């Protein structure tokens, strides 16, 4: 028997990066964010998502879910925004991570919530519910966003006021960003709505679109225009479906990476 026949088979490259957790922030008992060390060779477009997970228990297969990257493409660390599901296969464990732990991350980012999937326009609407805010944290910190659009409006709908994670960030902290702070101060509007508690802008974003309250609050013409408005959608399936139908009724057409359009949604999260 030759030495060649005794050689060990080549080790198959892992499809995942194993990354160190740098920090964890618990917003409340339902939501948390965490940051990980960015691999030197990892590249992505602002708004894309990637698979995040943990090794399987008792030697089982890794447990993975799609997570939007909440960092802009230029950031030195990668941030993620997650719900907590107490009996969830992944988040029941992921919510317990602390700085110094490791998580798995896929090597291939992808997604349609990117500027490349939209045609040119004057106003960019970033409409999200719950943790669907995550990609807007990325897109709103991308310099290209402000060079392509005169106005950027971040709409975030949640059930309770305590669920408005990143409220302070979008209200004023982003204005101190060394790269896009001045542009954000001049061009970015933050529009939160709350459905289950008293709030200055109550109700679902879809209801405020249909009533015209959204546009009145922002002192804009009622409705969306295919000539000037471009929209990104992320969050609950109900919101995405209803808002998509509303946009279509105004004449906006869905876009994709292959064929840019007036609005985009992330089908990976819609099912």
Automatic annotation (TrEMBL):
It holds the Pfam family NAD_binding_1. Residues 14-116 form the FAD-binding FR-type domain. SUPFAM superfamilies: Ferredoxin reductase-like, C-terminal NADP-linked domain (SSF52343), Riboflavin synthase domain-like (SSF63380). The keyword Metal-binding does not apply. The keyword Oxidoreductase applies. Its EC number is 1.18.1.2. It is an enzyme of class 1 (oxidoreductase). It catalyses: 2 reduced [2Fe-2S]-[ferredoxin] + NADP(+) + H(+) = 2 oxidized [2Fe-2S]-[ferredoxin] + NADPH. Its cofactor is FAD. Keywords: FAD, Flavoprotein, NADP, Nucleotide-binding, Oxidoreductase. PROSITE patterns: FAD_FR. It comes from the Bacteria. Belongs to the ferredoxin--NADP reductase type 1 family. This is ferredoxin--NADP(+) reductase. It comes from Brevundimonas guildfordensis. The lineage of its organism: Bacteria, Pseudomonadati, Pseudomonadota, Alphaproteobacteria, Caulobacterales.
């Amino acid at each position: 028997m030759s030495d060649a026949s005794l050689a060990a088979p080549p080790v198959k490259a892992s499809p995942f990066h194993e990354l160190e957790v740098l920090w964890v922030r618990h917003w409340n008992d339902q939501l948390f964010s965490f940051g990980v060390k960015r691999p030197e060779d990892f590249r992505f477009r602002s708004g894309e998502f990637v698979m995040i997970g943990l090794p399987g228990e008792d030697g089982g297969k890794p447990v993975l879910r799609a997570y939007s990257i909440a960092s802009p493409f230029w950031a030195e660390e990668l941030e993620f925004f997650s719900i907590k599901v107490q009996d969830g296969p992944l988040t029941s464990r992921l919510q317990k991570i602390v700085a110094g732990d490791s998580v798995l991350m896929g090597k291939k980012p992808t997604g349609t919530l990117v500027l490349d999937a939209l045609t040119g326009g004057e106003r960019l609407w970033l409409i999200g519910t719950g943790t669907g805010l995550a990609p807007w944290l990325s897109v709103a910190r991308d310099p290209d966003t402000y060079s392509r659009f005169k106005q950027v409006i971040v709409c975030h709908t949640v059930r309770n006021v305590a669920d408005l994670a990143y409220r302070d960030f979008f209200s004023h902290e982003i204005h101190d960003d060394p790269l896009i702070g001045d542009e954000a101060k001049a061009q970015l509007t933050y529009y939160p709505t709350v459905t289950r508690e008293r709030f200055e802008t109550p109700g679902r974003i879809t209801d405020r679109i249909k009533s015209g309250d959204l546009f009145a609050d922002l002192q804009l013409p009622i409705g969306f225009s295919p000539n000037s408005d471009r929209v990104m959608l992320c969050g609950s399936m109900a919101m995405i479906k209803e808002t998509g139908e509303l946009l279509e009724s105004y004449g906006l057409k869905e876009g994709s990476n292959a064929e840019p359009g007036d609005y985009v949604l992330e089908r990976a999260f819609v099912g």
